């Protein structure tokens, strides 16, 4: 087995038991790592009772898994997973940083957390020394204090354990903020200041386990690879190809802030009531005034598309975050009617500090603001907050209410879709009309009505990761934007942006073979490996439960809003077409191997030796008849 | 490089992207593996966003060499780098104590002090850093003497200074 450390750490937080498990090579060859391996582990352990498992209960698992390419391909990433408290299926949610590299250097390909601790804890790993430690002193603390305190503590401890070996570099860490502790379904698992595994709501899962943070220091080398020269050669080619992407490197994803809004007309504005704006303040260079670092990246990264933004004066003084990237510019900017970079940076930094996913919580804030606009939520409901579009301070106040689950914040903390259901009941209105989500997950900031941005008709309606803009369904399946490709990145585990150039993508298969020794062709990937992972995820999504279930006939669709025409901008009048959507969904079912009701077909599952999935899905097939 | 004098690695911490490509190339060339904890340049990130590539500054008076009780350290005439004799080194850590920047450390597997050897005058880390346009590490010549020793500072001290500059006094206080 090459490219892998060979062991996975399993930590039972209920009993405090810690053990090492090994996964057979045959399984790894089939599921690779990260998202794929998460699907396999979750199905094996929870599949037969999936619909009964409470994502926020002790029975759920929290997984943090690397892949064979982690550390060898530019840009370190790890995949966080488990049963999602947003979709009730499984999301592969990746996050950048040195954490995955440290973990592999410590001798582990990943960590499985089971059970739940009674009191707040954090996990400290130094090679094979693994310790569950008290975290009561940092419980309730935001990102800044959590990071600084734990880094200091861990370094002191390492230094006291082995004196005279010199200075210890800090361990790498993932952690949650107050939002995760209070089980907000829009909470992320975070790293550094602004890195987040946002989709899926795993911050809440971590919070439900009372796990504040995981710190790891690995002092060994990365695992041996099958072909060392080949590995270096391919990695070098990928880096060189990536370094040519001048524009992307220079401006990061934030460069899209003007293009996607003004030109493509596909950016959320005022809770997607529009998808167009012509605000030059969100132009490519308008944020750089605030950058103290023009290139910021994670282990091995060549693209370094993050930029460190700091505000050093005025009402928003003290805010630190990245670019903000495009998604945060859109969701904590235009979607809230905020067109001043300072306000956007401030809200992004606050969301980071509290441990929110900027996309999920930005969608939620805008949803609340539209309810306010329509008089469904009043000032009284909001403890006096005047939630007007563009009011940065009001949105900041509401963010804090959600993180504390105070007043209406308690309902909103359930995420846009669930909050919409609750508010509909409370106010006797249909608030779901204003929820721009798919399968309980806020849709990424790439709209569809203008038809100019990358999503395909089936992108969000058929994705096994709901609204996740990084994992969208696509016809044809082999398309570069297809979910089957996303599964490769999320299982590798790789950074998409370091594989943006077609040239880099070409070398990916060579790198995979050099590292693992397995000859995997794009065809095998598409027709066998990725398909298997996709079907398992689809099965979990359809099983859902316990609080929500999805019916493909109703929920394999986009938000209602997108059938209403755009009223502003160059694509004014455009909307999605319901019958076209239905046709596209049917077509996707057919090409991907699902039956006419959207359930993975029996013969397809048998072809892939997923008999237990096939058996389990029989109940869904019956119920859809 | 047309400048005369010994090679020296100039470091501009604010430009460091935290990509750690320097650690990758350094450990590959010295250990044959990607091994961040055995890299002669170690990127400290005591505070996110404040990444500090930490490596030997070639002090004019080489306190580390002086401090070594068994004569395991010497200096290269061609490059001015500190050379470690692995056979002689007893991993006592005196060089670390003597170094104003606490730069050397004991190899994570084998018992000897690890110090940058300037790759014999052709630093790999500088190449990786400039290839990516970050230029946090740059090769200069003749930057020896008291100047270079000013760079032999602990990551803590450098972090504080830079944090004050980038994040403001208040946050630097907490660190
Ligand atoms: S290669 Fe340069 S930019 Fe990257 S971590 Fe090293 S010093 Fe910093
Ligand atoms: S920086 Fe430290 S290791 Fe380098 S010459 Fe000075 S004392 Fe020696
Ligand atoms: S000059 Fe060579 S030995 Fe020194 S840190 Fe750079 S790569 Fe490592």
Tag the structure with descriptive keywords:
heterodimer; A: 625 residues; alpha+beta; Aldehyde Ferredoxin Oxidoreductase,  A, domain 1; Aldehyde Ferredoxin Oxidoreductase Protein, subunit A, domain 2; 6-stranded mixed β-sheet; 17 strands; 38% helix; 12% strand; globular; B: 175 residues; Alpha-Beta Plaits; two-stranded antiparallel sheet; 18% strand; binds iron/sulfur cluster
How many β-strands of chain A, per DSSP?
17
Relevant CATH superfamily of the domain at 8-217 in chain A: Aldehyde ferredoxin oxidoreductase, N-terminal domain
Mean pLDDT of chain B: 95
Structural class by secondary-structure content of chain B: alpha+beta
Strand order of the largest sheet of chain B: 1-8
Low-confidence stretches of chain B: none
CATH topology of the domain at 8-217 in chain A: Aldehyde Ferredoxin Oxidoreductase,  A, domain 1
Which CATH architecture of chain B? 2-Layer Sandwich
The CATH top-level class label of chain B: Alpha Beta
How many structurally independent domains of chain B? 1
Q: Please give the oligomerization state of what you see.
A: heterodimer
* End-to-end Cα distance of chain B: 39 Å
Structural class of chain A: alpha+beta
Largest sheet of chain A: 6 strands, mixed
Helix content of chain B: 25-40%
Can you list the strand order of the major beta sheet of chain A?
Answer: 2-1-6-3-4-5
Question: What is the total tally of β strands of chain B?
Answer: 8
Radius of gyration of chain A equals 23 Å
Query: Helix and strand succession of chain B?
Result: EHEEHEEHEEHEHHH
Which CATH top level class of the domain at 8-217 in chain A fits?
Alpha Beta
């Amino acid at each position: 087995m090459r490219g892998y450390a060979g062991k996975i750490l399993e930590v039972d937080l209920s009993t405090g038991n810690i053990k090492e498990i090994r996964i057979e090579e045959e399984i790894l060859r089939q599921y690779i790592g990260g998202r794929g391996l998460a699907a396999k582990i979750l199905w094996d352990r929870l599949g037969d009772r999936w619909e009964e498992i409470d994502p926020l209960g002790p029975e759920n698992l929290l997984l943090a898994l690397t892949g064979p390419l982690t550390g060898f391909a530019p840009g370190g990433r790890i995949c966080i997973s488990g049963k999602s408290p947003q979709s009730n299926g499984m999301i592969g949610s990746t996050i950048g940083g040195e954490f995955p590299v440290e973990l592999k250097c410590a001798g582990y390909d990943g960590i499985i957390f089971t059970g739940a601790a009674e009191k707040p804890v954090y996990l400290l790993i130094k090679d094979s020394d693994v310790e569950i430690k008290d975290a009561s002193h940092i419980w309730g603390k935001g990102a800044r204090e959590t990071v600084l305190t734990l880094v200091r503590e861990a370094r002191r401890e390492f230094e006291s354990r082995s004196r005279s070996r010199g200075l210890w570099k800090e361990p790498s860490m993932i952690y949650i903020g107050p939002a995760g502790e209070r089980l907000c379904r829009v909470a992320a698992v975070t790293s550094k200041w602004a890195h987040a595994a946002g989709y899926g709501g795993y911050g809440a899962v971590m919070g439900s386990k009372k796990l504040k943070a995981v710190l790891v220091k690995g002092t060994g080398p990365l695992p041996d690879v099958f072909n060392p020269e080949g590995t270096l050669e391919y990695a070098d080619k990928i880096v060189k190809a990536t370094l040519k992407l001048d524009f992307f490197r220079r401006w990061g994803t934030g460069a899209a802030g003007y293009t996607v809004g003004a030109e493509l007309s596909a950016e959320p504005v005022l809770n997607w009531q529009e998808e167009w704006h012509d605000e030059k303040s969100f132009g490519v260079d308008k944020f750089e005034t605030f950058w103290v670092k023009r290139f910021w990246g994670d282990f091995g990264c060549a693209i370094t598309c993050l930029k460190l933004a700091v505000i050093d004066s005025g009402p928003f003084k003290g805010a630190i975050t990245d670019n903000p990237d495009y998604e945060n510019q859109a969701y904590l900017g235009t979607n809230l009617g905020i067109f001043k970079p300072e306000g956007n940076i401030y809200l992004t930094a606050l969301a980071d500090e509290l441990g929110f996913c900027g996309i999920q919580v930005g969608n939620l804030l805008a949803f609340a603001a539209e309810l306010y606009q329509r008089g469904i939520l009043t000032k009284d409901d909001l403890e006096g907050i005047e939630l007007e579009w563009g009011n940065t301070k009001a949105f900041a106040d509401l963010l804090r209410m959600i993180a504390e689950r105070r007043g209406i914040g308690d309902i909103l903390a359930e995420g846009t879709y669930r909050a919409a259901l609750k508010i509909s009941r409370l106010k006797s209105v249909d608030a779901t009309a204003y929820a721009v989500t798919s399968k309980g997950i806020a849709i990424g900031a790439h709209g569809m009505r203008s038809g100019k941005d990358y999503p395909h008709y089936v992108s969000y309606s058929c994705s096994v990761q709901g609204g996740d803009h990084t994992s969208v369904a696509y016809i044809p399946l082999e398309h570069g934007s297809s979910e089957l490709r996303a599964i490769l990145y999320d299982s590798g585990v790789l950074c998409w942006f370091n594989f943006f150039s077609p040239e880099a993508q070409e070398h990916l298969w060579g790198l995979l073979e050099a590292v693992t020794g397995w000859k995997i062709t794009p065809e095998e990937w598409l027709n066998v490996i990725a398909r298997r992972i996709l079907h398992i995820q689809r099965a979990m999504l359809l099983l859902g439960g316990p609080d929500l279930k999805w019916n493909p006939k109703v929920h394999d669709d986009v938000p209602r809003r997108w059938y209403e025409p755009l009223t502003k901008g160059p694509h004014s009048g455009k909307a999605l077409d319901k019958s076209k959507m239905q046709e596209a969904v049917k077509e996707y079912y057919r090409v991907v191997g699902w039956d006419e009701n959207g359930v993975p077909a029996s013969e397809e599952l048998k072809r892939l030796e997923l008999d237990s999935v096939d058996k389990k899905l029989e109940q869904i097939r019956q119920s859809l008849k | 490089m047309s400048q005369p004098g010994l090679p020296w690695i100039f470091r501009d911490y604010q430009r460091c992207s935290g990509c750690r490509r320097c650690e990758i190339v350094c450990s590959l060339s010295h250990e044959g593996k990607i091994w961040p904890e055995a890299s002669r340049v170690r990127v400290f990130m005591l505070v996110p966003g404040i990444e500090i590539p930490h490596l030997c500054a070639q002090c004019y008076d080489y306190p580390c060499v002086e401090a070594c009780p068994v004569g395991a350290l010497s200096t290269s005439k061609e490059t001015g780098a500190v050379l470690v004799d692995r056979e002689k080194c007893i991993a006592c850590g005196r060089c670390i104590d003597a170094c104003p920047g606490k730069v050397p450390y004991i190899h994570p597997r084998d018992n000897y002090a690890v110090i940058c050897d300037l790759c014999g005058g052709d630093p790999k880390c500088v190449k990786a850093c400039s290839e990516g346009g970050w230029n946090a590490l740059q090769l200069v010549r003749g930057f020896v003497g008291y100047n270079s020793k000013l760079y032999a500072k602990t990551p803590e001290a450098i972090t504080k200074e830079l944090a004050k500059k980038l994040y403001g006094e208040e946050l630097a206080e907490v660190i």
